[in-house]
Amino acid sequence: MSQPVAGPVHLADPASGCPINLIAELLGDRWSFVVLRDLMFTARSGFRELLAGCDERIASNVLASRLTKLVDAGLLTRRDDPGHRQKVHYRLTEPAIQLVPVLAAMGLWAANWLPADPQLSAPARHLAEGGPEAMNAFMDELRLAHLGLMG
Amino acid sequence: MSQPVAGPVHLADPASGCPINLIAELLGDRWSFVVLRDLMFTARSGFRELLAGCDERIASNVLASRLTKLVDAGLLTRRDDPGHRQKVHYRLTEPAIQLVPVLAAMGLWAANWLPADPQLSAPARHLAEGGPEAMNAFMDELRLAHLGLMG
Fold it and tell me: Which of B19, B95, B120 has the CB atom closest to A120's CB atom?
């Protein structure tokens, strides 16, 4: 994994300095992972696309609150669409892109132990079983798409 | 990682078969990760030990509810202490032991991006940077201590 190159992630008043506690305080709710998953593994980036495309039918107010939380934490950026005055795009930041190994490990475990759909489990299996090379290749794809390196 | 050898984990009525959604539905709350962390990385196994030892000062009713949830899910077993009639011990099951790579990836990310204590981050760094060998060695230690292979 490459070393951090962006600013730290923001978390107010943590109850301890244990890293498991810190990430659990930041992301330990069901919908934060679902929102990060959709930004990481699909091309959706607008609010309406994220709302309509979510297989778990996230509620509009929950999606809005999680997007705001993730932007405030430094895990997402929010940008206006120059072609549509009322449309915004959400993009992953470098720290969020570096969550790929976390989501891959979570997905592999769930594919092994929970009633996961084999087709929906393929990306996590590919990443987890492909090791650092597969992780780095995918993170580089995300950097191209989300950090503006294509534009 | 060794293949699953225990029964599946129980999760009622998931909203989708996506593995990230499934694990987020099961464990996506702050305290589940904290409780699993303490059972995984400390020798504490009794309710009072877990309550008193938790650096984040988990509330008694929250600890009780998370232990019950994790037992019902098949991630923990609950056994009476033969020497103390009122004491019970909680132990990790095989699926919970296989969460080691998930907690290691979470801990490494938090050590890099959040204000984590370096000393508290050492176990996650050791596991994440030691690769499959370090993960397997630690999971084998947990199997000895939690699955009754020592007794």
Answer: B19
Q: Which of B52, B112, B36, B39 has the alpha carbon at shortest distance from A24?
A: B36
| Dist CA A39 CA A57 (whole Å) | 15
Neighbouring-strand partners of residue A76: A92
Set of chain A residues whose Cβ sits within 8 Å of the Cβ of B113? 4, 8-9, 95, 98
Burial bucket for residue A27 (CB in 10 Å: 0-12, 13-18, 19+): buried
Cα→Cα distances A77→A59, A72, A73, A80, A126, Å: 21, 9, 10, 10, 27
B-chain residues near A57 (CB < 8 A): 15
Least CB-CB distance to B95: which of A101, A113, A121?
A113
Interface of B with A in 50-109 (CB under 8 A): 55-57, 95, 98-99, 101-109
Q: How far is it, in rounded angstroms, from Cα B81 to Cα A90?
A: 52
At residue A38's C-alpha, the angle toward residues A27 and B32, to 5°, is 25
Kindly report the pTM of this predicted structure: 0.93
CB B31 within 8 A of CB A136: no
Per residue in A21-69, pLDDT tens?
Answer: 999 999 999 999 999 999 999 999 999 999 999 999 999 999 999 999 9
CA distance A10 to A7: 9
Q: Does B112 touch chain A (CB under 8 A)?
A: yes
Best of B1, B13, B18 to disrupt the A interface by mutation (most A CBs within 10 Å)? B18
B13 touches chain A (CB under 8 A): no
Element (H, E) at A79: strand A76-81
Give B73-85 pLDDT, tens digit per residue.
999 999 988 888 7
